[in-house]
Amino acid sequence: MITFLNHLINGISLGSIYAIIALGYTMVYGIAKMLNFAHGDVIMVGAYVCFFAVSSFGLHPVLGLVLAILICTLLGIVIEKLAYKPLRQATSLAVLITAIGVSYFLQNAAQLLWTSNPKMFPDLFGGAAIRLFDGRLTITVGTLVTIAACIIIMVVLTLFTGKTRMGKAMRACSEDKGAAQLMGINVNRTISVTFAIGSALAAIAGVLLCSAYPSLVPTTGSMPGIKAFTAAVFGGIGSIPGALIGGVLLGIIEIFAGAYISTQLSNAIVFLVLIVVLLVRPTGLLGKQIREKV
Amino acid sequence: MKKMFSNKKTLTNYITYAGVILLFVILQSMSAAGGLSSALKGQLVPVCAYVVMALSLNLTVGVLGELSLGHAGFMSVGAFAGAVAAAALKDVIPAGGLRLLVAMIVGALFAAIAGVIVGVPVLRLRGDYLAIVTLAFGEIIKSIVTNLYVGMDANGLHASFLNPTLHMEGGKIIINGPMGVSGIAKISSFLAGFLLIMVTLVIIFNLVNSRSGRAIMALRDNRIAAESVGINVTKYKLMAFVISAALAGAAGTLFAMGQNTVSASKFDFNTSILVLVFVVLGGLGRMWGSIIAAAALTVLPELLREFSEYRMLIYAIVLILVMLATNNPTFKNFFSKIFKRKGVKNHE
Amino acid sequence: MSNPFQKTKMVPVPSHSIIPERDLGKAPILECQHLGIEFGGLKAVNDLNLTIGRTEIAGLIGPNGAGKTTVFNLLTKVYHPTHGTILLDGKDTSGKTTEQINKMGIARTFQNIRLFSNLSVEDNVKIGLHNQEVYSTLSGILRLPSYWKKEKEAHERALELLSIFDMQDMAGMKAGSLPYGAQRRLEIVRALATNPKLLLLDEPAAGMNPSETAELMENIVKIRDTFQIAVLLIEHDMNLVMNICEGICVLNFGEVIAKGTAEEIQGNPVVIEAYLGKKKEG
Predict the structure, then answer these.
(1) Over the stretch C18-67, which tens digit does the pLDDT of each residue have?
(2) On the CB side of A130, how many CA atoms lie within 13 Å of its CA?
(3) Which of A4, B48, B232, C204 is the most exposed place for a label (fewest CB within 10 A)?
């Protein structure tokens, strides 16, 4: 029972990280209708920035996180301006390949700058925080911070997209860019802001991810990126609550599959669940069913 | 006089055949005369395999119009099924060429079966959802092959999943889980690769110019209209997908049989993406484009060796720039103006 | 001049219709009984009863949003009806797919043109011939004799069908690059290629100028006479509808408000109130 609870907590913690990454995917997809494959690599950049800030410059972890968020936000805006904005009218496949190019670029730039030797990410949050059942069940500060961060981000984003002018503009753009433009919304700026928010979230996710799984290499972001993307699709791509549900469920499934079925097959099981879900609900758990107009 | 086909298309196809033959003859004679560096020589078989991969993926993405992000999975199935077949038939068929042929057929067959298993659920989905599920299947295939153990002794083949013990009496291990296949007798040759490319081209060109090919392209251009004229959506989608998978399987066997060792991790998401890059850069539905892009981009990293660590960075930048140059309206107008000035004018 | 369509399979079949006297005593080609569909509570089409004769040219008219295209989508099973039955040539079509419906004998065009725009005009028609000129995929890949024979037939029939609208010279052009009117005509040719018993035309004259429309009217009648099929058309051009449609059905808010001949419809006060009275154009 206690092992089960332990796995559950680990699953929720990992799932919260996936959810934060998935939010970035989902927001960008919702508005730009593109699969931003470079998103996972922004996570990696965020983790490296925080790593160097804390280990090499001795900054406080919170400052490291803030720095990571700033740099990733900037990076997100720059990537969007240079690589994606010129392709606004192009086919989605062209944008996809460009995103892959950006992903290659970030990975290889990271390899040149920081080599492929793994960096041991410092534990930013210290040891166990809560001990239950005579110390058999421990919940680390990192886990608590991760789950709390995920919940806070979710609430803030929901309020942001629901209440603020920019949030409403985002929703309008994701429904119909042409109509949004006619209503006086600056579509380009809205897309830039979306990328900025997505990248900031990626930085947070990167720092949280590496505190939990400390080995940091230039390809650190790839697999979590793909999984989070899966989570976004799982929940229904374009939907913010979908990203949360998809991310958390995916994390739990991954940890449980690894614990109770087979570690080697945990990834395969995660993907299998995705396939089954999509077969039952072709647009994900909370995705909109779109009927083609004939 | 009225021609049976639009002339231009048939002409392009013949030029493509001729180009491939010409390139083969040139490279083969250069190779015989010692005009190729050993590094480049070692690339000949992989280049052929990637060309077939790109051509077959172009059938799915360019002709059928569905984005697949898991094509390497079929290559993997073909590579390992072919490797097992080749190892098992070593004594039965001593001649390397014939054994390779049989291995390729086995590889293609297994990949086709995988194609059916993947295709039936996947092709019910649309657009990006379909793409993500092909990605998922690619990763599942990788996980399965990574945990597969196959060996052979006097009693025949033994296979085991997840568990490395094979209960064999002597014999040898063919697929050793994450280590994959090692000590491969290299029976692939540039000639075999060339022949596989030619067969692939014949299959794709003839398919595209036939009733079934038109049905597939009709689905790509307008699914609802295609249904309204009595085309069976599932049948033709699956047909394109399975043919594409089978060809990728044959390419996988060709590739594996030219290496010393292959492991499942070679055929991951990045390989699928790499092949997709070939297809998109070469042009959707444009087979000669796929051939050139696959060949050039497989050899390019070798040629960029002198830039050593910068080569992948350069590759990434070139990729982004090419995509911007070919898809941005401003750039496009710029290029089309240059071409117009040269007097290359299309009949309108 | 001899009949230009004699070489086709679509040799005239004896048939008759409902309102025109020649179809008296013959089974209708289409019968809809209490047909209806709801989208989340909204009754887009409600209790539609419609009968079309073997060689009748029928019109389906009504204000925008009346549910006319939805009726076409129900007939071709793009949407599956929530109520009622559709009998095509006496056979129930429930549970059939769009593809099977076409094989049973309904072909259609679309309001927003749906051509295979990257393919040539000829290929578009050949795709319409998909179930007429049949050979296996394998003989296509291996180019066996059946491939050459059937391809030759398909080529000849495609040109023959294109000649209805004098489009045989455009055979090699890309369908997407045709002028608008030609695209609409190509859709009709493609639908005819599937050898239908009932042809559904969704606003065939939309975007055409008066002389093109006049020509289209002639051609619709010519198609009916040559192939001896029934035609059901949706059209806003009242001149076209009143001139060539033998029976007219008026739809408003998903329900039939009137049925009859052109004269009856023109004189019907309900129709005038619901539709003609408010209409500015035409």
Answers:
(1) 344 555 556 789 999 999 999 888 889 999 998 898 888 999 998 888 89
(2) 11
(3) A4
Mutation site for B-interface testing, chosen from C121, C123, C149, C151 by largest number of B Cβ within 10 Å: C123
Taking the domains of chain B in order of start, what are their residue ranges?
44-290
Q: Which domain holds residue C138?
A: 115-195
pLDDT mean over B61-79? 95
Residue of A nearest to B282 (CA): A94
Asked, for residue C110, whether it belongs to a domain, the answer is: no
Separation of alpha carbons B295 and B44, rounded Å: 9
C257 touches chain B (CB under 8 A): no
Region for residue B187 given its phi and psi (left: phi exceeds 0; alpha: psi -120 to 50; beta: otherwise): alpha
Please give the pLDDT value at position C262: 85
ipTM: 0.86
Between B6, B212, B230, which is nearest C120 by CB? B6
Chain C nearest C-alpha distance from B239 (Å) = 9
Split into its structural domains, chain C has a count of 2
Considering only CB atoms, which chain B residues are within 8 Å of C173? Answer: none
Considering the domain architecture, whether residues C3 and C71 belong to the same structural domain is answered as yes
Q: Which of C144, C168, C195 is the last residue of a domain?
A: C195
pLDDT digits over A256-276, tens only?
999 998 888 888 999 999 899
In a domain, C63, yes or no: yes
Tell me, yes or no, if A290 comes closer than 8 A to chain C by beta carbon: no
One-letter amino acid at A28 equals V
Quick one: fold of B44-290?
ABC transporter involved in vitamin B12 uptake, BtuC (1.10.3470)
DSSP assignment of C96-163? --HHHHHHHTEEE--SS----TTSBHHHHHHHHTTTTS---HHHHHHT-HHHHHHHHHHHHHHHHHHG
Instruction: Please tell me the distance in Å from C19's CA to the nearest CA on chain A.
Output: 30
Residue C4, pLDDT above cutoff 50: no
Same domain flag for C129 and C177: yes
Chain C positions in Cβ-Cβ contact with residue B216 (cut-off 8 Å): none
Give A-chain residues touching B326 at CB under 8 angstroms.
94
At C86, phi and psi to the nearest 5?
Answer: -125, 125
Q: Which residue has the tokens 């206690």?
A: A2
CB–CB of B320 and A94 under 8 A? no
